[in-house]
Amino acid sequence: MLNISGIENGYVIDHIRAGKSLVIYDLLNLAEYDGQVAIIKNARSKKQGLKDIIKIEGLVDMDLNLLGFLDDNITINVIRNGEIIEKRKLTLPEKIIGLAKCKNPRCITSVEQGLKHEFILTDPENRVYRCRYCEEKYEEENR
Amino acid sequence: MRHLLRPTDFTREEIGELIETAQDIQAHPEKYAHVADGKKLATCFYEPSTRTRLSFESAMIRLGGSVLGFASADSSSASKGESVADTVRVVGVYSDIIAMRHPKEGAPMAAADKSPVPIINAGDGGHQHPTQTLTDLLTIKAEKGRLSDLTIGLCGDLKFGRTVHSLITALIRYENIRFILISPDELRVPDFVRHDVLEKNGIPFEEVDDLEEAMPKLDILYMTRVQRERFFNEADYIRLKDRYILDRSKMKLAPEDMIVMHPLPRVNEISVEVDDDPRAMYFRQAEYGVYIRMALIMKLLGLEAPKC
Questions:
Q1: Nearest CB to B125: which of A106, A115, A122?
Q2: Minimal C-alpha gap between A73 and chain B (Å)
Q3: What Cα–Cα distance (Å) separates residue B97 from each residue in B31, B50, B85, B90?
Q4: ipTM value
Q5: Domains in chain A and their CATH numbers?
Q6: Measuring CA to CA, which of A52, B67, B77, B219 is 20 to 30 A from A112?
């Protein structure tokens, strides 16, 4: 059993689909973050079999709700003074800006400088996001 | 400020008003001859087009306005790598309204985000072509007398045919509309049309590959060209381009009051022998295109015909 010390103040991003923690690490731009970050891959989970976990020391301002776009099973525990003060369940954000790329080679986002890729939630029931510009569906396997 | 980027940017009522204005323009063109005096339309066409661009220019000139612009990416600063956003910020200073055609999907929306003047999407890649849709709606209203209770057969390239996507999206807002989608498997309507537009709204449609079988059921047959420029692979284009050819013998299977529409240009999908058939509506459709674009320019610029 691998032991990673608890955090005093910060976030525990839990129930990440196994293997997806590095995608989230990139999305949240944690490479640029100066504080402590622990990535736990393939942790055993009663619910999921295997899961990934990310622990971030420090209550920095991050739009963690955006992670709902990747996987709305993810939970976020907010830790203050060593205690969980909030268990945040993610919902699907209405709009995703600059987090994911449109793969349609005919889309204007593939060539226009400075244009942020933007996706709109068009069908919450089926978790469908479409590019705001070309309306191409964002494919689940890219998440 | 309003733009026209997608056919649903206007409500059904607004489209009704545009059609009414267009029909009044057709009946009384002299009333509208100076409505846009002093106004300038810029046509920013990043890919070749004959009729859409000339139709816009004709519309503006008939309203008394003037036109400027470019007709291909090579003759614009796009060839130097300028972004669409930068181009419209500049062209918006030179003009009062911009009609844009671009090979990349969503380019007019990227333009509208930054433009100081209204943007009209004059076709963006395989995505949308809303002024063709307005033209089609006016043609249907003028020739069939209604926009509801219709069975529409769409035939040919339904995958890359942006006029098809726009027309389906616009027509589902009217009552009792049914579609028969006639195409080879490879050129079926894209997912965003099938799921988000047709299935989600419970619109009856069938997908078939036989044109002759569908003919007797149709009020409208909308033919499209298989577009070479949308294929990454020339072999696929050659294989699919002659799949449907409408000729006199197929027209015999159609009801007497069916109309044939086509956004033009045609290549060989409608044989020239059909041109004399009174049901062939595609050249008149091009004429309606000018009237509806006149009505659209007036609406986006907030212009009104003098009361007389």
A1: A106
A2: 25
A3: 22, 19, 15, 12
A4: 0.85
A5: 10-89 (3.30.70.140), 95-138 (2.30.30.20)
A6: B67
